[in-house]
Amino acid sequence: MTGTIINVIAVLIGGSLGALAGNRLPRKVQETVMAGLGLLTVTIGMSMALSTANILIPMFSILLGGVAGELLRIEDGLNALGRMAEERWGERLGQGKVAGWNVTRAFVTTSLLFCVGPLTILGSIQDGLLGDYQLLAIKSTLDGFAAIPFAATLGPGVLLSAVTVGVVQGGISGLAMLLGSSLGDVSRNTPWVVELTATGGILILGIGLGLLELKKIRVGDLLPAIAIAPIIVLVLQWLGIGL
After folding, report:
1. Is residue 95 predicted with pLDDT exceeding 60?
2. Which of 31, 155, 159, 182 could form a disulfide with 15 if both were Cys (CB 3.0 to 4.6 A apart)?
């Protein structure tokens, strides 16, 4: 779990620095930074999505995941958690001191961004199986630096995403410890990891569109797609169907 602890600390440090800077940034600067973050997020999501070996797998994963997510009301649950945090810690986090700061939006956006991606899955599995936290250390550095501009523009609600990172990555590491060697040799080129990465990229693309205020997409309700993609790959392999 060492990698997860490092990641949580990195998000807290980056978020704190960004929140402090946000108090001093003019509104126009915040808007420009947010637009830049949106463009960068779209670019990252697109590059991940294009890594798929068979576009039908992410497509069906998104379709099935969207149905499952809407039935489970995942997005509503995330927003409810954000509102709960806003009511409890909004004043303490400084909500309202800077126009545009919103604890719920900051929490949901960065929670999704920091937990959707191959480094989250691979790093957590390696940390749980082998005690190797190298990948999560790299991810921690990236998340820590990313948290600075996000907190500067969205507000200190970004700090709450550290809880999501701890729960998600800690849960994956714990599950990896329980499953042990049954997971086999897992790498970036493992077929189910490739399709999971591509599907996660589509979700990140959705986050980017939201940051650019081009389209509000209920990305939270698409989260089951990340679990469905590997299942589809494993079923196809079991049936002897090549990718």
Report:
1. no
2. 159
